[in-house]
Amino acid sequence: MRDILKDALSRGYDAGISIEPHMVVVFHDAQSKSNNEDAMRKNYVEYGRRVESMIQEIVTLKKMPANKS
After folding, report:
1. How far is 33 from 30, CA to CA, in rounded Å?
2. Is 8's pLDDT higher than 60?
């Protein structure tokens, strides 16, 4: 995901990003036992924060001058 975001942002992409973190429950699996809404909400928020942090890191590194060693 980092490589995809890095590429998109380096090409000037500045629109929305959709996230679908299926780490607590697999929605298309009828046998999935997890239906804890609180756990799913917490997972979604955590995933979103991590993606936000990753984007901020990529943008910050993009603004830094190249290291000329």
Report:
1. 8
2. yes
What residue has token string 């901020």?
A: 56
Counting every residue, how long is the chain?
Answer: 69
Q: Which two tokens stand for residue 26?
A: 């697999």
pTM (2 d.p.): 0.70
* Long-range contact set of residues 10-17: C-beta below 8 Å, sequence gap at least 24: 10/62, 17/51, 17/55
Could you please report the per-residue DSSP string of 6-36? HHHHHTT--S-------SS--TT-TT-----
Cβ-contact 6, 58 below 8 angstroms: yes
Q: How far, in Å, CA of 54 to CA of 42, rounded?
A: 18
